[in-house]
Amino acid sequence: MNLSKRLVPFFATLLLLVAVQSLAEEKAPAAGGRFEAGVGVVDITPREAVKLAGMPQALMTSRVTTRLHARALVLSANGARVAIVTLDALKYPVEQVQKARLGIEQATGIPASHVIICASHTHRGPLWSHYPDQLVTPIVEAVSMAARNLEPCTLGAANGVVEGLSECRRVIKDGRAWNRWQLPPEEADRLPAEGPSDPGLGLLAVTGADGRLRAVVYNFACHAASARDPVISADFPGEVELHLRSELGHEVSALFLTGASGDVNPASGVSGERFGRELGGEILRCLQRLEPVAEPSLAVATRSFEMPGRENPKFEEAEIACNWPAQLEHYRKAFTEKMERARLLRWYGLDRTKSADFRCSQMPEECGYKYHMNDFSASVGLGNMAAARHDIRLRRAIANYYFRRIRNERLVLPL
């Protein structure tokens, strides 16, 4: 994963639902402490032989082990609606995301900025370009289906941990870096992983009024690449959904959001079936300890920020792997520098820690602003955002009242 210097959007789906590339922020309380939710699923499994997009070689196959789908979850609260879409596909480019969002807005009225689209990164399916309109129609159909099937529901959230399923795929052999799958099995299995992986699991569960689980949205950081056999497959996300359905005894949609999985693959020797059992099993355990959203609200926001890149633009994997702590220190230093600049800019560009009389003794190197509230004040402000538009309308009405009453009065204005 070459971390060049660029803007990287980060997505979270829990009590805050993030819509990609949206600059608007909207909040609406749900009536009676309940959401409405709808689920839509469209089968996108090819009917003919296709080239598998994630394979090192150009492999063609028509054999199917687990079917590919476009899944959609629509959540609604007091007229505000958001849609989360997951695709059993290697990737989905920004240009197509924009077309799909526009189609969703035209078909359902859900704003394009309120739509998240995430590909599972399965290596065993065709590229989006294989489909007649690059998957736009199946995505719009899935969201439209979900929007038509809105029903009262409750939401719950939980976090879990699944050890032993994933690992950093980078290994070092004779001073050079390799991806584990590039080496013969007898060599690959004896070399340790040279980098971190994240075993954390984040879960959002949607339960219907009848008490049956309707959908889960879960986040786990791992490539959907548990095997290299030439078959069409949703890989471990498909196995997770099959395991949940088998254990629960009814249909349930599992929407997989890929975490920060740049160099993280299924651990050596871990099959898709085992992945499904163990990750699906942890999801089931999470369902037993859900934290319900007692007074739910629905919010949509996006934040983009600049990720610091490597000092050396050349991608030296072995050097990075062997010097991972130094890389962490590089990121920490870059972050600290940005935080220090932000700290100065929030108070006119002055450093309040240098002297008691900082206003008169310093000349700022960079002029800043008067953004000096603490975290508590910021939290109070965020909590009042829901009423901000009402308060602004009220103050404008009061101002207009005074303007009308004094419009014909002779006034002496101060200089």
β-strand percent reads 25-35%
How does the major sheet shape up? 9 strands, mixed
Counting helices, strands and paired strands, the structural category is alpha+beta
Mean pLDDT level: 81
Q: Low-confidence spans: pLDDT under 50, at least 5 residues? A: 1-33
Number of helices: 10
State the order of secondary-structure elements, H for helix, E for strand. Answer: EEEEEEEEHEHEEEEHEEHEEHEEEHHHHH
- CA-based shape: globular
How many strand units? 20
Query: What is the straight-line distance between the termini?
Result: 61 Å
Portion in helices:
25-40%
CA-based gyration radius: 26 Å
Keywords for this structure?
single chain, 415 residues, alpha+beta, nine-stranded mixed sheet, three-stranded mixed sheet, 25% strand, globular
What would you note in describing this structure?
This protein has about 425 residues and is an alpha+beta fold. Strands 4, 7, 8, 9, 10, 14, 15, 16 and 18 form a nine-stranded mixed β-sheet that branches. Strands 2-19-3 form a three-stranded mixed β-sheet, with no helix packed on it. A two-stranded antiparallel sheet has the order 1-20. Helix 1 links the parallel strand 8 and strand 9. Helix 1 runs parallel beside helix 2 and helix 4 packs across helix 5. The longest helix has 22 residues.
